[in-house]
Amino acid sequence: MRSFEFAVDRGHAHAVNEVFAGLRRLRRLAAVTAMIAALGTAFLIWLDHPWAYLLAVAVALGAATALWVALWTPWHSSIDRLYADGALVPSVVSAATTSGMVLLALVDVSAPESEIPRYALVTRKVRALPGHRAELGERVPSVAVRTDRAPGQVGERWQSVSAMPIAWGTTDSSVIERARAAISEAEWRLLTDNLALAEKVSRSAAKRLLLDPQQLPGEIGS
Asked: To bridge 91 with a disulfide, which of 35, 105, 171, 190 should be the other Cys (CB 3.0-4.6 Å)?
């Protein structure tokens, strides 16, 4: 895995990082759901009917699951951890819309223990990219993060991997340039040569397009 170290500006990240904002919303929703389910469980037990006890068990399991998500999310959503654990990946602006931009990224979707990389194109809609221009082909160094809520993967591939821009973690342009330079020209070129595929990727159910290893440049596929 190609890692990239930099000092994360937590204030900036908390303000603009859309991955962190999504996880924060998930935590709030899980906490509310756990509370409502716990109250529902107590009410069903209070009814003191055989059917109510059976239903109470199911609701209690839901409360426990929601509570686990609420407690798990803060650990998983640490800004520093998200950037430290993610591999440095290339992404480029593939489209500009009235509400933001669409990024096309090249990510390795193989499981961490796999010795053979499996590359795919993925897309991500973003509202803002501080430090970047909303121009087709703009190079946006990012880190790969898991965006699914499942604890594992399907087969040898992660269920969902997305790109989180370095620009969401720092306002220092030199850091962004250093990250950009750490990514090979072959990777950037592969993305710009396949900008036309971004719409196809966005329309796919998995929001990704697996690439044929035999058709990858030697610098990437090896």
From this structure: 105
